[in-house]
Amino acid sequence: MLFRFAAPIVTVLSLCQSAFGLPFIAPRGTRDNSTPLRNVAYVQTFTDSSGNFLDLTQLVTQNTGVTHVILSSLHLDSPTEIHLNDNDIGSSYWDPLWPMVQTLQSSGVKVMLMMGGAARGSYVNLANNFDTYYPILLQILQDHNLDGFDFDVEENVALSVLLRLAQQFDADLGTDFILTAAPVASALRNGGNLNNVSWPDLDAAAASSVRPNGKLFNWYNAQFYEGWGTPNESSYESIINYGWDPSRIVMGTIVSAKAGSGWTPLSTLATDISAIRAKYPNFGGVFGWEYGVAGLSDGVSPVGWEAAIGEDLAS
Ligand SMILES: *[C@@H]1O[C@H](CO)[C@@H](O)[C@H](O)[C@H]1NC(C)=O
Ligand SMILES: *[C@@H]1O[C@H](CO)[C@@H](O)[C@H](O)[C@H]1NC(C)=O
After folding, report:
1. What residue stretches are annotated with the GH18 domain (predicted)?
2. pTM of the model
3. Ligand 2 and 253: CB distance under 6 A
4. Each residue's pLDDT tens digit, 37-47
5. Which pLDDT does position 12 carry in this prediction?
6. Residue to mutate, 155, 156, 162, ligand 1, most ligand atoms under 8 Å from C-beta
7. Ligand 2 atom at minimal distance to the Cα of residue 268
8. Ligand 2 atom 3: residue of nearest CA
9. Taking 70 as the threshold, does the pLDDT of residue 4 lie above it?
């Protein structure tokens, strides 16, 4: 009897000691969200037409079900000019953004940074001058306590550079730091591509013994628009049939005709998402490019558009 009671008491004491006797930093919760059915919002429009910052915290206060916000787009213009869109990421212009990022994070939303996109040069600059640019990138991610990094590579660069960047982030920021990439959908089956990297080859090379799925890249935000795919069942299936795990393929869509070509109405998306979920219970989820102009073609607000997708993804 005594022994049976003694064991739990020792356990409680040792727990207390580690909690109060040693320096203890409360874990913020794992950064990796390996749960499929992600609802990912890229954000590239940060202000309204009068220059007032959009209130990104509405993504949580209005129950949109958004799980990841990806701040876009970072550009490495020169070692002294690192821009988030048109403004230096270190400038006071962005002061209103960072508290909103913290609010989102404290509500469980992971906030990441995307580099690249249609404006070229960042990955080529990184390739040519990795030792100069990498520490700058690392500092930005650490300064703002961001949860992940998204590779949107729309220029030619060697696979080895992307692999090196992913490996270096993994080494410096830990295995919970989220690594994603945003190739066009067809590139995931070695079809049409916006760069010369084979994503299946890169994914195979980017192995990790400790990360989810044994890969450095947690998942891919695949662009199913602009002619590279359609956010529907057969187009999604053509990627999965190439050998991808559905939990690692997030289906990207254009949120309104203003965001690009290939806009799909919310009502069509609801049908398609439902069909894909029925076929692939471990569906990786949906992303929208991009929040600020979401819903314009559907006649709903950006928050309303995100919430509609959230409902499609909710059980
Ligand atoms: C892709 O482009 C880069 C930079 O031009 C080059 O170094 C690399 O060899 C190319 N890779 C392939 C597979 O063509
Ligand atoms: C789905 O997309 C594919 C290819 O992008 C297209 O050929 C097909 O017609 C679409 N299916 C439906 C039901 O719209």
Report:
1. 37-315
2. 0.89
3. no
4. 999 999 999 99
5. 34
6. 156
7. 14
8. 235
9. no
CA separation for the pair 202, 204 (Å, rounded): 5
Q: Can you tell me the distance from the alpha carbon of 310 to that of 40, in angstroms, rounded to the nearest whole number?
A: 10
What is the C-alpha to C-alpha distance for residues 157 and 123, in angstroms, rounded to an integer?
7
Distance CA 259, CA 197 (A): 25
What are the boundaries of each domain within the chain? 18-314
Report how far ligand 1's centroid is from the alpha carbon of 158 (Å).
5
pLDDT for residue 144: 98
Which tens digits make up the pLDDT trace of 13-24? 333 333 333 333
Q: What is the pLDDT of residue 212?
A: 81
Instruction: Please name the residue whose Cα sits nearest to atom 12 of ligand 2.
Output: 232
Report the separation in Å between the CA atom of 274 and the middle of ligand 2, taken as the mean of its atom positions.
15
Q: CB of 194 within 8 A of CB of 184?
A: yes
CA separation for the pair 36, 24 (Å, rounded): 31
The radius of gyration of the chain's CA atoms, rounded to the nearest angstrom, is 21
- For Cα atoms 213, 152, 254, give the angle at the middle one, nearest 5 degrees: 100
pLDDT of res. 266: 98
